[in-house]
Amino acid sequence: MKNLYLLIFMTIPSYGMKQAVIPTKNILGKDTLKELIGFSQLYLEHNIDRLACQKNESGFVRINIPLSASLADKFKFIKKMRFNFWSPDTDTIIQEESIHSHPGYFESSILKGGYDHELFDIGTKTDTPYDTYRLFKSGDSKSVAFLNETPLKSMGIQKIQEGSHISFPTDMIHRVISTIPKTLSLNIVFKNKAENDHYNVYLTKHTPLDLVKTERDFLVRRDAKIAIGEIMDILDTKK
Prior knowledge:
The chain is an alpha+beta fold. It has 3 helices and 14 strands.
């Protein structure tokens, strides 16, 4: 089934391919975002010595921000929040990001930096075939199973810039291909909006399956404090 979002194309000379721009209708407004960013900053300040930073093989670290009881009551549609931060000052080993979908709808606010990501759609037999693996989530654990062979076609590159607020529906298939150092995003995951217990990863033929991570490590305490300090410096400039 074709993805339901629309694509507009422009040519990018530097890439020699099309740029994809997705017109989206975001759910979160500016005032709500401002409140959520402010709360997240205070949470970092009060918990800097005990926060865990999860390493992602795509080059960023993730910090989960639990909602307070009052925020959870006010924004009943929010499931969770997290910072993604591409820090050059940690020991995160970076590998090319796999093409993937997401288990739940979320919106992402780019607080600093930006990145380019390539968008894909389900193709036909004439397009490149990918081995499709489904990752099932249960709490903090994941399991992986081969699903099928799926043809994908590239729909172009979307440039995500600082100040952007973008939506990620569950049927979006993409991969980040380049990132500005110290890019920081706050991602807000929604409840009960096309939510799945799984997502897909698409690998080219003969790609080792061990590149699909079912468990991820955490930064050592020293690196975690460095990353959190850098995030707090960025947020201070947004006040």
